[in-house]
Amino acid sequence: MITHLRHVDLAVTDYAAQLDFYTGTWGLKAEHSDSGITFLAAEGSPEQYVVRLRQAADKRIDLIAFGVASTADADALASRLAADGVRLVTEPGKLQTPGGGYGFRFFDNEGRTVEISADVAVRRHRAIEEGESVPVRLSHVVINSADPEGTRRFYEKHLGFALSDTLTHPRMGDMMWFLRVNAWHHSLAIARCPHPSLHHASFELRGLDEYMRGTGRVLRAGVEKIWGPGRHLAGNNTFSYFLDPSGNTMEYTTELELIDQDTWHPHLYDFSDPAVSDQWGTANAMNEFVAKRSFNDPDRGLFVAPPV
């Protein structure tokens, strides 16, 4: 029933610094603000917002939000989840966030809050111009999981996600699973990690030139680059990973693969092959340092519903 990824909501301890980073450096637009909370839109996206920042005492993922086609689908999905023993955070009803709509929230298997919504008003957006290096949309979210096999089963069984590809390693086994809900190669991915946390959120730019311009702008701003620029094999998308002021990994990308879901067969890619992580060979080598930077801090919000 899920149609697409809507937004990722982050609680941060350094709200002012984060807001300055996302609006002044990353290229998002603050559309709605209140005391200690801001809803950030991507100029090219019809979604009301793609990131929500909230001032908090603990750093956490507040929630990850996905869309469904109708209120009937939201009701049906909520009923099915409840019948399967999934713990609902809120019952289906009117949403009080920008754009309104109808939806509900629940905890996934590791305690992340997930929101499902329908009938959210479309934001007035615009076509991103040639050379304009601001995000078009939120491309995908990658989560760290201490039980990645269980997390994959949860999203496939309860939410209908489908596997696109898997990264594996000769010594460490399967390491990352790419899951889709539409023709985009992935909207969600799951990485093996010692603890649940945000691995990264990825933002689509208009094209290769805009992606490189954006990468250069963020570098010139002095933001710490973790990895890139390069092009992955799984998803065939470009990547430049940076750390935001809270230590969350954020990615600029473009040209994420669109697949024929009727004929697609998942690949098992050997991550020890450098061409799997970076087809171009332009990025710094993937090593233990790079991997650990994306482990992030343990999420402090598991099985605790966000206050907003």
TrEMBL record:
Domain of life where this protein originates: Bacteria
Residues covered by the VOC domain: 4-119, 137-255
Pfam families registered for this protein in UniProt: Glyoxalase
Name of this protein: VOC family protein
Source organism of this protein record: Paractinoplanes pyxinae
